[in-house]
């Protein structure tokens, strides 16, 4: 499944600092194609600064060249989809090819979500 947020309203940015993403273009160089990185910063235009797994920094990466990376069960996640739970952080309890179950950090609620609605969270759970 694609996790590039095509299901979100056009013009709405899904990319935020502290999420893990995957590069989905060869325009940044074939060595980064399908590689993961952490979003360090996002400009108002939606371009990201990434720290790749090999510690290389990539600047001005367009949102359209990225998709969300998903945590393994037990890993930290954040809800990116608009709505009541947007930006809620929690622990991924389980996932299959389409859906996942997330336990929220704040109130321990259990949510069933589309995989397209979440990303791996690399920041602190408390904020």
From TrEMBL:
GO terms for cellular component: spliceosomal complex. InterPro entries: Spp2-like (IPR045166). It holds the Pfam family GPKOW_C. GO terms for biological process: mRNA splicing, via spliceosome. It comes from the Eukaryota. This is Uncharacterized protein.
